[in-house]
Design goal:
6 helices, 45% helix, 5-stranded parallel sheet, Rossmann fold, Response regulator
Amino acid sequence: MSLSGPILSVEYDENDYLLLAQLSKELGIKNKILFFQDGIELIEYLGATTDQPFLILCNTALPMISGIGVRDYIESSPPLKERAIPFIFFDTSGRVEVVKEAYKSCIQGYFLKPEIYEVLKDRLATIYKYWKSCLHPNNM
């Protein structure tokens, strides 16, 4: 995790991309946000770049490969795992079975995307502030 690295958002819904970009701007988040429509795009990006991302925000239900499948792939790839990028599910699904399945993988959080704009903004601020203040081997 690099404090100034990009935030990687894996989300198939373009409206959610636009909303995250707007909220980030309002919150004064300076990190660049890179959007990926599916897990394959993210995996290919991570394999091709030496950038150290700040964190990954991922939906669980994605085309091609699920968010859980993406996380499992990262964990099974020594070069990607060693980068220790915080992986957070940021999703509209709060189904118990989905959350339990997600936590079988090595994730750093599972947050619901609330439908109320101000609550969503506060949730994103909480995630961002936590990771900005967290000690991490890649930012020491």
